[in-house]
Amino acid sequence: LVVTAFLPIILFPLFGILSSATVTAQYANNTIFLFISGFLMALTLQRWNLHRRFSLKILSWCGVNPGILVLGIMGATFILSMFVSNTATSLMMVPNALSICKALEESGTGSNTRESRRFSTAVMLGIAYSANVGGMASLIGTPPNLVFQKQLAAIFPDAPEMTFAVWLGFGFPIAFIMLLVIWGYLTFTYLRGLDMASRVDPEIFKTQYTNLGPWSYEQIAVTVLFTLEAFLWIFRKDLEFDAVTIEGWANIFSEPKHIADATVGMTIAVILFIAPGRSAYMAEDAPGYEKEETEEEKAKATKKEEVADDNASASN
């Protein structure tokens, strides 16, 4: 029920009653709610293990060529960092990277081999730099971007709005070029002459991805909402390409200027709260049903285990 307090942020701009800036000012401001929606989506991706599924899929395409492998790791980090905080992205990617480095070390002559150190250094630096660069690519990639958006609107109120699509138009190309430059530098500095084909099993990432099992209902639903959110952000306002103009979807409403990126973000966030998980509507005898235990049931189960342990100890 607490989430219903966010409904005015969604409904008032869509129905042309008040602008998003006016409504969110009663709570905080547009920037804060864009923050919140981004964090909620990031938490949802982590909750259903989609970050690991996406990263392993990308890595499984790259094989064991050291340069391509590092590029795959950096690319996965870059993409995740566009929508998840830089720190959280690094925390997601480091375990995968460590498993690769460990496999290289175990298949070599020891953990201190020069080749292992060179590859590990390139991987860890690649994750750090690509997470930082990826945060520049989208408006919600890192908090300073949203701070800039807020200050731009406050200092220059007559300036064109800094939307998700506008930022993506200039931020992504710059960030992508920087990613390639960093990858080229790391490859030239650390990976020259490094042969991993005979050291690392090329099926390692495919095996890890297969171990994740089939896509669950929740993973599919979150992926659809994630894609929809990005689509709505990009195409909210008119996009002009020389003589061609793609009309924004907000124009179907009576007051398109009332709708902001925060409106889109909070709409998806509220859907994430109210959309049922699979076990919420499946029959208890259906395959894949997982009943969530209440605190009382957990306490009873713990007590039964303690009694069983005490009885076992007494019999001994």
Automatic annotation (TrEMBL):
What lineage does the source organism belong to?
Answer: Eukaryota, Sar, Stramenopiles, Ochrophyta, Bacillariophyta
- Signal peptide per UniProt: none
* Gene Ontology cellular-component terms listed: plasma membrane
Q: What is this protein called?
A: Citrate transporter-like domain-containing protein
Q: Looking at the record's lineage, which domain of life comes first? A: Eukaryota
Q: Which residues form the Citrate transporter-like domain?
A: 2-256
Q: Give TM segment ranges.
A: 30-46, 58-84, 119-141, 162-186, 215-235
Keywords attached to this entry:
Membrane, Transmembrane, Transmembrane helix, Transport
Location comes to: Membrane
List the Gene Ontology MF annotations in alphabetical order. transmembrane transporter activity
Q: Which Pfam families match?
A: CitMHS (PF03600)
Region of interest (Disordered), residue spans: 285-316
Record's compositionally biased regions (Basic and acidic residues)? 297-306
Membrane topology (UniProt): Multi-pass membrane protein
Name the PANTHER family for this protein: SOLUTE CARRIER FAMILY 13 MEMBER, SOLUTE CARRIER FAMILY 13 MEMBER 2
Key word Membrane present in the record?
yes
Q: Does the keyword Transmembrane helix apply?
A: yes
